[in-house]
């Protein structure tokens, strides 16, 4: 069974990423993938608790609380979870937590995936900082390749709102999606 630790910002109702993660977990096959989640607390935490997954809440993982100290402490928290639960993949949902995942990867052997939902103003952290990438549109693919030098073979597009029982998924094949990512 694949064990995936999802890393994101605050769990809130007014957030497309939170809804995306909720649906990802809800509609995945729990016999094939076991999800774990680390995020900052928010008004949607109880919805995730109903999905019967292990949830770890920390203000240090929040983008709005980013600092060198919080990156270091969050890195050790993710490292501890990854070792304890034998996590196979760290799946981050913004560049801040992707940086944390990348630091963990430097300490233990683990795969990293980053879903790039949007771009943030350029700061000190890299926008693309993972082994593989999921992007939500073709424009993001162009930006990743041209501006950030990401290899085309490391990027996979999955648009918002596509349920896994969708005919598009059937046409290209679920296995193909899983293998590319």
Task: Report what the structure shows.
The longest helix has 17 residues. Helix content is 38%, strand content 21%. The protein has 7 helices and 7 strands; from the N terminus they run βαβαβαβαββαβαα. A 7-stranded parallel sheet has the order 3-2-1-4-5-6-7, with helices on both faces. It is α/β, with parallel strands linked by helices and 181 residues long.
Search tags:
about 180 residues, alpha/beta, seven-stranded parallel sheet, 7 helices, about 40% helix, globular
Helical fraction equals: 25-40%
Give the structural class.
Answer: alpha/beta
N/C terminus separation:
16 Å
Look at the structure and give the mean pLDDT.
Answer: 84
Strand content: 15-25%
The value of Rg in angstroms is: 15 Å
Shape, principal axes of CA atoms: globular
Short synopsis of the structure:
The chain has 181 residues and is an alpha/beta fold. Helices cover 38% and strands 21% of the residues.
Topology, element by element:
Elements: E1 2-10, H1 16-26, E2 33-40, H2 45-49, E3 54-57, H3 68-84, E4 89-92, H4 95-107, E5 111-116, E6 132-135, H5 138-146, E7 155-157, H6 167-172, H7 174-180
Parallel strand pairs: 1-2, 1-4, 2-3, 4-5, 5-6, 6-7
